Amino acid sequence: MNNNHIYSKNDRLLKIFNFVLAISIIIVISTYFVGKFIMPQSDKTIALAVKTIAKNFSDRSQIVHSIWTSEHRKKLFMPKWVKMYDENAMNKLGLKSEKFIFIMSSTGWPKDIIGIENYKNECERLWIGLLAKELSISYETVKASRKIDENLCIYSLDEVSFSYNYEDGEIKFLE
C-alpha cells in the first residue's frame, strides 16, 4: 500500500509537470506568432498613419502657400474665410486660429507660427498650427527636430519619419 501511495504522488507530480510544460509550450508558440504576424502589422499601421499625417501636413501648408501667393507678405494672418481647423480640436488645445501669424520663407512656405505658446521649436509649432493636433500619432509622441542648414523640419515616430522643406514645401519620407 505504501508503494501505491508513492506511485499516486508521482503520478500527480508528473501530471502537474506535464500541464506546466504544455502551458509553457503554448505561451512560447503564441509569443512567436504575435511577434511574427501581429507586430509587423502594427509597424505597417504606424507607417500608414505617418503617411496620412504627412499628406494632411502637405495639404495645409499648400493652402497657406496659396494665400501667400496672392499677398506676398512675410507675416501672414489666415483669412477668416479659410476654415482649415476643427474648432473642437482647437479648443481642446487651447488655441485660437485667428491669432496665428504664419512666418513665411522667402519662397512663401510656412516656416514658423506666432501665437502658439509652450512649444520649443518652430517645427513643433508648425505641426500644431497646420494640423491642429498634439505631437502624437496613435498615442505615441512624435519627435520634431529642425535642420537649419537644410531648411528642414523632421517629424519622427519610431523608425518612420518625414521631412518638410520650408523653402520649397516638399515632403519626403525617410524610412
How would you describe what is shown here?
The protein is an alpha+beta fold. The protein has two domains: 1-34; 42-173, no CATH class. Helix content is 50%, strand content 21%. It is built from three helices and nine strands. It has helices at 2-71, 87-93, 122-131; strands spanning 75-77, 101-104, 110-114, 136-137, 140-141, 143-147, 152-157, 160-165, 171-173. The strands form three sheets. It has a four-stranded antiparallel beta sheet, with helices on one face. The chain has a three-stranded antiparallel beta sheet with strand order 1-2-3.
Could you give the order of the helices and strands?
A: HEHEEHEEEEEE
Q: Which strand order do you get reading across the main beta sheet?
A: 6-7-8-9
DSSP summary, beta strand count: 9
| Individual helix count | 3
Percentage of residues in strands: 15-25%
Main beta sheet: strand number and arrangement? Answer: 4 strands, antiparallel
Helix content: 40-55%
Gyration radius, rounded = 27 Å
The helix/strand class is alpha+beta
